[in-house]
Amino acid sequence: MTKVLFLCTANSARSLMAEAIFRQFAGDDFEVASAGTEPTKPEPGALAALEHLGVETDGLHSKALADIDLNSFDYVISLCDRARTECQALCGDQHFIAWDFPDPVTSKKADAFKKTAHELSERIKMLLLILRKKSDRPQLFDAPHEFFKIMADPLRLKMILMLQHHGELCVCQFVDATGMSQPKVSRHLAQLREYGLLADRKDQRWVYYRINPALQDWMATMIKTTAAYHASLIPQQVKDVDNGCV
């Protein structure tokens, strides 16, 4: 059974919501918990946001990291910079994943808790797809050096940077912008998806690709930084799928 632990400072909102959402979506092959470096108590807004999503909240309570056996977890996921700083060094052979979600408790926006719950839900769904995937290829979550191998290929790098700039693109848009053949583009997209770097969705005739929102923060930051410093590698105009893209 794969065991996942979510961490933040107070274990009152972000990590607690992540625990509940993960438990709702995961099957019997997973065990999930959450904890905080300075736990308080569940925020009413967090519980209300979970109930709005249809996620069970029974039994949710804030827990102290000091009472958790980190060595018993396969994956440890921090949800704020403070938890990342305080906890990453404590993790041994576990796969440490750093996500950074704004704290809805300190937000002035009325829908902050609902927005956080929704974004956690989307990212956790993608995480579960990766963790459940059976493949002989190394996964990015298990072998970070594979990320740099992927980025080292000029075509794959351009495609990744295009997605960073444009958000979502389909195969024909990559073909038009790169000048590469459709089979070659499709093969590279399939590899990127299999490694867990890309996610996709189908909309009528088109399959759209995007950067996997469940990537570790350092990977997402590396992509954003590369795109910012090497904008010349990114085709700024792409063909509209409604205007001749087939």
Automatic annotation (TrEMBL):
PROSITE patterns for this protein: HTH_ARSR_2
GO molecular function: DNA binding; DNA-binding transcription factor activity
This protein's name: ArsR family transcriptional regulator
Biological processes, Gene Ontology terms: response to arsenic-containing substance
Alphabetically ordered keywords of this record: Arsenical resistance, DNA-binding, Transcription, Transcription regulation
Keyword Transcription regulation: yes
Gene3D superfamilies per UniProt: 3.40.50.2300, Winged helix-like DNA-binding domain superfamily/Winged helix DNA-binding domain (1.10.10.10)
SUPFAM superfamilies: Phosphotyrosine protein phosphatases I, Winged helix' DNA-binding domain
Span of domain HTH arsR-type: 136-235
Protein source organism: Idiomarina zobellii
Domain of life according to the entry: Bacteria
